[in-house]
Every structure is written in C-alpha cells, then in structure tokens.
Specification:
By secondary structure, the chain is of the alpha/beta class. The protein has a single domain, classed as Glutaredoxin, CATH 3.40.30.10. Helix content is 35%, strand content 23%. It has a five-stranded mixed beta sheet with strand order 1-3-2-4-5. β4 and β5 form a beta hairpin.
Length: 115
C-alpha cells in the first residue's frame, strides 16, 4: 500500500476514539454521519474527501458510518443523513443535514478555520 497518497487528515473515529480524535483535535473537524445505503451520503463522500485534500494542514475530516456506530449517531441526535457538524476546540459550532456542494462546505469550514 502506498502511504504517500494516504490522507492524514481523514479520520474514522469509533465510539471509543471519538472524544480524543474529534473533541480534543487541535484543528477544526468536519464530521460526516453517513451510511453506504444512502445515495446523498455516497454523493457527498467524494466532495468531503476532495475538500480534505484541499484543506490538508488546516482541518480534519471524520466519517462516521451510522450503521457501525449507532451510539455516536444517537449521541448527536442524528435522525437523517447525511448529517454534518463542525467541531472546533471541543464545541459543535455548526451542524446541518443534507448534501451540500463543495464551495458551500468549504465556506462553512473556512469560517471556522479563520477564527
């Protein structure tokens, strides 16, 4: 496996690691609650991955599969997916549901990154 292309700012936190990986992160984190059976989620995933590539060093991006981690989805009141939230310095500073194009996602992230 080629580790040169591995993105270091994409996380796959679990219920056990979520707190450490997301709430204690030094950078803002965009959390994407998704599932493989959800078409808008599948459409959004590559958009988030592209954004992660563009924002390497500025922000982190976490994917939570709600089927694999139902407790996390429940903890954050996720009732429809894709559900996204931005966590900065331990606080949820933005949250929304539904597909969003990359410029809109990037604008939301930059608003937090530039604070």
């Amino acid at each position: 496996m080629d580790h040169m292309n591995k993105q270091t700012n994409i996380l796959h936190p679990t219920t056990q690691t979520f707190d450490a990986e997301v709430f204690k992160a030094q950078q803002p984190v965009l959390v994407d609650f998704w599932a493989p059976w959800c078409p808008p989620c599948r459409a959004l995933k590559p958009v988030v991955e592209q954004l992660a590539e563009e924002m390497q060093g500025e922000a982190l991006f976490a994917f939570i599969n709600v089927d694999e981690h139902p407790a996390l989805a429940e903890e954050f009141g996720v009732s429809s997916i894709p559900a996204l939230m931005i966590v900065n310095k331990g606080d949820v500073v933005d949250a929304w549901t539904g597909y969003e194009a990359k410029p809109a996602l990037k604008a939301r992230m930059m608003a937090v990154v530039e604070k």
